[in-house]
Design brief:
By secondary structure, this protein is mostly helical. It contains one helix and no strands.
């Protein structure tokens, strides 16, 4: 019974760690994308 419980705990822990890693990668990608857009030169409209 203990082996089965250990397997469940290991599986849940692995799934949680993978979900955390995916979330951190997603947040990092969003922050990187927003930072690169913020540092892009703004286009100025030409005056007539």
């Amino acid at each position: 019974m203990n082996d089965t419980l250990d397997r469940w705990v290991q599986g849940i822990t692995l799934a949680a760690l993978l979900a955390l890693a995916a979330a951190l990668l997603g947040v990092g990608a969003v922050l990187y994308a927003s930072d690169s857009q913020a540092s892009a030169p703004a286009s100025t409209p030409s005056e007539p």
